[in-house]
Amino acid sequence: MMDFGQVSQRSTDGSYVIQRDGYPYHVPNEGEWAELWAQVHEYALANPDKVAPEPPPPEPEPYVPPPEEIKQREAQEFVYGLMEGLGYEPSV
């Protein structure tokens, strides 16, 4: 049996993520990866202390609009406010 070191298991589909040549390698239980998945699964069952659930993805960065977009939005709000103050109702 190969030593896969630390293994992450994806809870969504039961696939594994192993380190291969220093890079994370996704091993699904399908197609050309089925044989490797069986080996990793056997390793995971024999070494439960080396298997961890896959960590959740990081939270996305909040969107910060660039200054040009802020200026454009402020200009649009100003024009719409001016038009509303004059009683003009735009047709959409």
Helices and strands in order:
Blueprint: E1 7-9, E2 16-20, E3 23-27, H1 34-46, E4 51-53, H2 67-85
Parallel strand pairs: 1-4
Antiparallel strand pairs: 1-2, 2-3
Structure description:
The protein has 92 residues and is of the alpha+beta class. It has a domain of 47 residues. Helix content is 35%, strand content 17%. It contains two helices and four strands; from the N terminus they run βββαβα. A four-stranded mixed beta sheet has the order 3-2-1-4. A hairpin with a 6-residue loop joins β1 and β2. The mean pLDDT is 89.
Task: Please describe the structure with a list of short key phrases separated by commas or semicolons.
single chain; 92 residues; alpha+beta
Total strand count, please? 4
Main beta sheet, described?
A: 4 strands, mixed
Tell me the overall shape: rod-shaped
Mean pLDDT equals: 89
Compose a concise summary of this entry.
The chain is α+β, with helices and mostly antiparallel strands. It contains two helices and four strands.
